[in-house]
């Protein structure tokens, strides 16, 4: 199993970074690289460090860590660098070319794991030392530019920033957008040529994705202007939970290096409190639309992501753990798993990307959450299902929640890397 996972990563290795999947995603993606480094950490310190260093070579002067770092000659992908046109921003690097939005901040978590598992300790310490200022700038960007007065929660400004592109969470927000400034004609969409179109976001969704990119470009990627103008601004449970955990990990990194850590502890505390005060709505965690104040209550897996960061306590934690047990599905002959969207949700579709399939990273977050709350048996069952899914269906992008069949991109890096992490 581990050998097969290593072969997948080897096949996607570009010499300095790992692409998520050869045809569908032929460049370097932000949270994919963090997951991939978490897997490499067990086997290959050099690869793990190189993966994260190369991702951060795309970091902007204002600390923004872009969701895609384009690889010269990487292969066709829409929207490519010419659409992002990040030269409009004084903060974007001239090289490498990048996108101009972010993804969930799991990078400090990855850096800390790479450091902890490294065999060559002096080298690992140099790595940690080099990464601290980069992570500091990245988290400072989020806490500074992605918050508004009155809330410590960070905002996402695009469905792609959530990592869960076509989640039904965004339906009501996207419905308010009338796309004008930029559309995505089918012939430009490289994803439709290499993946099953029935498993990809719709044309209406892509038009809105592109409308938002055009808006960011028109505002020269100036955060203050975008904050005032964007019709898509969401306080997302997963993004904020990942950030709380990453702030905890950044605290550990700073302490390990004998550097001040109070700022990171304060960030973690303030965001935790804000998740508890502002995102707990009617007995469940839920995203909030900043523009309308509306609660976005689709029953996605991300309602459980605060467990990963140890956010809920006492009765609330028990309640979330009970909801999680209810949301699990049984993959035929393999065991329990958490689907990206509850079967009971009207938008549930077992093969449609972030609207139902089982994803390895989702189950990895939940596995760690369960362990954190002492639910070791449930965590062990989830681990077994993930390993057996990969054995049965290979390292797919996502899996059918009943049959366990693989869907989406094949030979998918984070599925391989996170199984390597589970194998230990
Ligand atoms: C998917 O998103 C990209 C856009 O960023 C796409 O569909 O083209 C998402 O699943 C995202 O979470 C992931 O990071 C990316 C690469 O695996 O693919």
From TrEMBL:
Keywords: Glycosidase, Hydrolase
Chain segments annotated as coiled-coil in the UniProt record: none
Single GO molecular function: Glc3Man9GlcNAc2 oligosaccharide glucosidase activity
Domain Mannosylglycerate hydrolase MGH1-like glycoside hydrolase: 25-415
InterPro entries named among the record's database cross-references: 6-hairpin_glycosidase_sf (IPR008928), 6hp_glycosidase-like_sf (IPR012341), Glycoside_hydrolase_63 (IPR004888), MGH1-like_GH (IPR054491)
Swiss-Prot/TrEMBL GO biological process terms: oligosaccharide metabolic process; protein N-linked glycosylation
PANTHER family, per the entry: MANNOSYL-OLIGOSACCHARIDE GLUCOSIDASE (PTHR10412)
Family: Belongs to the glycosyl hydrolase 63 family.
Protein name per Swiss-Prot or TrEMBL: Glycoside hydrolase
């Amino acid at each position: 199993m581990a050998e097969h996972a290593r072969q997948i990563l080897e096949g996607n290795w570009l010499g300095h970074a790992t692409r998520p999947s050869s045809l569908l995603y032929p460049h370097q993606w932000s949270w994919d690289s963090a997951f991939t480094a978490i897997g490499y950490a067990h086997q290959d310190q050099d690869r793990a460090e190189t993966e994260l260093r190369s991702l951060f070579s795309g970091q902007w002067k204002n600390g923004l860590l872009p969701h895609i770092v384009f690889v010269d000659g990487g292969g066709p992908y829409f929207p490519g660098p010419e659409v992002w046109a990040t030269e409009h921003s004084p903060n974007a690097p001239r090289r490498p070319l990048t996108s101009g939005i972010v993804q969930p901040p799991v990078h400090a978590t990855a850096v800390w794991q790479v450091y902890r598992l490294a065999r060559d300790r002096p080298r690992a310490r140099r790595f940690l030392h080099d990464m601290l200022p980069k992570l500091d700038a990245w988290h400072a960007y989020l806490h500074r530019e992605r918050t508004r007065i009155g809330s410590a929660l960070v905002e996402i400004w695009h469905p792609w920033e959530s990592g869960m592109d076509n989640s039904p969470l965004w339906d009501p927000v996207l419905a308010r957008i009338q796309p004008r400034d930029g559309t995505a004609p089918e012939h430009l969409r490289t994803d439709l040529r290499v993946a099953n179109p029935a498993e990809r976001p719709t044309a209406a969704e892509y038009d809105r994705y592109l409308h938002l990119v055009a808006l960011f470009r028109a505002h020269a990627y100036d955060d203050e202007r975008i904050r005032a103008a964007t019709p898509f601004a969401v306080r997302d449970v997963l993004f904020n939970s990942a950030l709380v955990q990453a702030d905890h990990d950044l605290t550990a990194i700073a302490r390990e290096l004998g550097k001040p850590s109070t700022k990171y502890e304060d960030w973690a505390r303030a965001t935790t409190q804000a998740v508890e005060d502002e995102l707990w709505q009617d007995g469940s965690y839920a995203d909030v639309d900043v523009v309308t104040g509306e609660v976005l209550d689709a029953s996605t897996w991300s309602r459980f992501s605060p467990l990963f960061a140890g956010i809920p306590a006492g009765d609330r934690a028990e309640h979330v753990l009970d909801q999680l047990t209810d949301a699990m599905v049984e993959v035929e002959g393999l065991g329990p798993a958490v689907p990206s969207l509850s079967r009971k949700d009207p938008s549930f579709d077992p093969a449609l990307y972030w609207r139902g399939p089982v994803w390895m990273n989702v189950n990895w977050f939940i596995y760690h959450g369960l362990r954190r709350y002492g639910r070791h048996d449930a965590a062990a069952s989830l681990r077994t299902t993930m390993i057996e899914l990969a054995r049965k269906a290979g390292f797919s992008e996502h899996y059918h929640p009943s049959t366990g069949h693989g869907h989406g991109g094949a030979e998918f890096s984070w599925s391989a890397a996170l199984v390597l992490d589970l194998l230990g």
